[in-house]
Structures are given as C-alpha cells and as structure tokens.
Amino acid sequence: MSAGGPLRALAELRLRVLWRRLRGGSGVPELVARIATFAFAIPAGLVFAGLTGAGAYQAARAGPGLRSSIPVAALYFGVWQTWMAVSLSVSDRSQLDLRRFLVYPLPPARVYGYGLAASVLGDPFTWFWCLLLLGAFAGAALARPGAWLALLALVSLGFVAATAAMAALVQELLGRLLRGRRVRELGIAAIYLGLAFLLLSSGGGPRPGVFQAIRTLARFRWLAYPAALASEAGAALFTGRSAAALPWIAALLAAGALSGWAAYRLALADARSGGEGAGGAARAAGGGWRLPGRLAPLLEKELKYLARHPLVTVLALIVPALSAFFGWKVAPHLPAEAGEVVRLLPLVGLAMYTHLATEVFWLNAFGGDRGGARAWFLAPVRLEDALAAKNAAVYALALALFAASAAALTAAAGAPPAWAVAAAVALHAGAAPWFLAAGNVVSVLVPRAASTSIQRGGRLSPLTALAGMALVSAVSAVFALPVLAALRLEWPWLVAASWAALGALGLWLYRLALPRTARLLSARREALLAAVAGDDE
Length: 537
What we know:
Blueprint: H1 5-23, H2 27-62, H3 66-88, H4 108-121, H5 124-143, H6 148-177, H7 181-201, H8 210-218, H9 225-238, H10 242-272, H11 296-308, H12 310-329, H13 340-343, H14 345-357, H15 359-362, H16 375-378, H17 383-413, H18 418-445, H19 454-457, H20 462-489, H21 493-523, H22 525-532
Helix pairs in contact: 1-2, 2-3, 2-5, 2-20, 3-5, 3-6, 3-9, 4-10, 5-6, 6-9, 6-10, 7-12, 7-17, 9-10, 11-17, 12-14, 12-17, 14-17, 14-18, 17-18, 17-21, 18-20, 18-21, 20-21
C-alpha cells in the first residue's frame, strides 16, 4: 500500500461518518447551521480584509521606517493574540482523538497532522483570520508587484501553521499540567498574586508612556514566536530586503514544525497512557459540602463536576489575565469626554463575556453526564430540580469568573465608580436567566456527548454553536437598549435600574419555563440518552 493509502482510508472514514450524521435526524439542521456560521464569518472577514489590505498597501509603498514595520507587526500580533485567546477560551473547534486510531495500521504522526489540519480548515474563526492575511497580501500585491510576493505568501502560510501548532501545543501542555489538583491551585494562585502585585505597584506614580510600554513588551514578544518571526520577515519583505527575510522565514517554518512535533508527542503519550480517563486515583468522597436547601446534593454534584473540569481551570487562568491586559492597554485610552456610560463598557463587556465563555456548559447541560445521564430518569429526582441545579452551578462559575476578571480589570485600570459596579453586577445577574432558560431548551433539543479534556471539552455541535451566537446577540441587543437611552438622556443611573428590571423579568420567565422544559426533557428522554451516552465523535 502506498504512503497515502492509510490517509485516504482515514479521509473516507471521516466522510462516511459525516454522511451518516447528515442522514440522521439532526443532520440537515447541523449542515444548515454550519453553512450559516461560515456565511457570517466569511463576509465579515472580507470586510476587515479590505481594511488590512489598505494598511498593507500603504506599508508596501512607505519604504523603511515605522510606517511599514508597525502595521506589519500589528497585523501578525493582532491575529495571533485573538487566535490564541479564542482557542484557549471560547473555541468550539473539534480535534481528532488520536487514542481512537492507535489500533489501526495508520501512521500516528500523519493522523495527528490530518486531524490538526482538518480542525483548522473546519473552524470559521480561522477562515476569518486567514481572510485578514489574504487581504494584506492583496494590498501588498497591488502596491508593489514582484517575486517578493511568493516569500510573503510563504510567511503567511508559515504563520498560520505555526500559530495552529502553538495553540495545539499550549492546549496539550495545559491538559498535562492541570490534571493535578495542586498544580491547578498553584496556577490560579500565581495569577491572582501577580494581579495583586500589579495593583500594589501601580497604586502610585504616573503610568508608563506608550513608547516605554512598547519597549517593555518588546522584551517578551518572542514568547509569541509565530507573530514575532512573521513580523520580522514581513517587515524585511515590505522594505524590499528579501535576502534579510530568508533567515526569519526559515526560523518561522522550523518553529512551527517543532511546535507541531511537540504537540504530537504529548498527544501520543496521552493517548498511549489511556487518554483523559487516566488522570489518577480517585479521591475519597468525604462528608460533602453541607450546602443548604433541597437542591444541595444536586448542586454539590454539579459544582464538583465543574471544579474537576480542566476547561474551568483554563478559564480561571486566561479570562482574568486577558481582563488585566485589556485594562492596562485599552481602558486608559477611552476618552473622558465620551461620558461615564462609555467608560462603563469594559466592565459591561466582561459581564457578558463570562456568560459567553461558559456557554459550553449551559448550552449542553447534559453532555458531561455521558452514561450517568440515565440516573436523572431513574433516581427519585424531579427533572426541574436537575435543571435548576445545573443552572445554579454554571451561574456560580460565571459569577466567580466575573468577580476575578473585574478585580483584574480594576487592578490594571483603576477602580470604577460604585454605580458602574452596580450596573455591571445587575447586567451579569440580569442576563443569566435569559441565557439559562434558552440554554435549557437547546440542551434538550440538541444534546451532544462532551469530553472532559481541554482540547475536546469545548465541543458544541454547529447547530448549538449557531444557537449560542444568536442567543448572545439577541440578549446583548435587548440589554443594549437601556445604554442607548442613558446616552441619549445622560442619565447613568438608568442603566442599572433598567438592567435590574430586565433581570427580574428574565427570572420570572425562567421560573415559568422551567417546568415546561422539564416536561420536554422527559418526552425526549430516549433521544437525549442516545446522544449524550454515545460516541462523542
């Protein structure tokens, strides 16, 4: 058999599985949802590609200097930053499970490479970022046609490959490091100690200037080696120094290959050790948490599940860190003359983002139960209580993330006024019942088996992901109306009051919908169990 024979067989297998899904009951809606997702991402990418193309056109004609180097660095570092942030927090991109293919006569390295490439090509976020790079390439080609464009294309391709490999490597490393309970605790403690140090160190004295901050960040830019190497190569190419770009291009390709190889070796070792189920010996159950109320045992079960999930630990590490960075780099530049309501937006954005970051749990509430979901229908437990316990646990997680992120933002940007904090808390609490009520319905109608690993723990079906996008957009639009009214009337207090009223309305609708959703869950018991207790591929 030729070298490509096993991979052709693997591709055929994946196509057959896809065809079987399309022929299933939810196949057509899943296909429509995936098409709709790309139909949104591609036009948006084309719009922003025009902007990057205009910037690249000016940079290619500017000659040596900051007018050419800064736009190139901003392009690559901006794409890298958003790519890594989405990959580690809210991405629902699926990856091939190498453990399943070790029993077949297939080269593991090629299988892993195929899975990584397929996950990148199937991610609408990646299409968006690649369109930005394509727009920059088109702008450079219009500004200065020539053979140097072949090297520029190689830089962009190498950057995409290196960034995808780095994201996979970081996910594998986090999956390996965060299995131990002590490591998780130490990691989270390190983040918050660092934020406390930032708060103390920035408490007095002037903030560093822009150029001083840039010089400080330049020392650490090699940690983002795909963007750093690509920007060095791109800056040389845009200034007509093709020979000087060759070493940087070679380093970029080598770094991408090394990252991919390291990610593969970690994934292979994890697969051979038994995968995600080989995390270590089980701990004693203990005496429980002694929570009050009728839902206490169910709530304790759900909270312990979330506490053990590695994705939760990643969110606890990443989201506050991103908030601190935003508070340091963006929030101070909001114009004071824009008004108090505009300066509220960073804190408000965090309140909504923490719900978005946890959507994998409230849009697929039963996915993590797997075979244990049968207990909800066998045990003497009301399905209303099961849904309420799951919702309460997810909201507790989102609230903890919001509190930590708001503290990080405050440490970096300064303390906001009391009314702004009250408004953000009202938004976070007020939006929750809307998200949770709709998420319960989606969880029942479109269930999917979920994995408890970082790489695969964020998986949502295309239909569920599209529903999540629609829900977040709709709820954000509803809660944006009081902001527009407050800007018009110049009444900042109207924001918190309106959000509290919307939250009360949402809570009433949630309590009204909960028994109806429980009856829907009971009616769809067999379909839900077949989905969540089956194969997550």
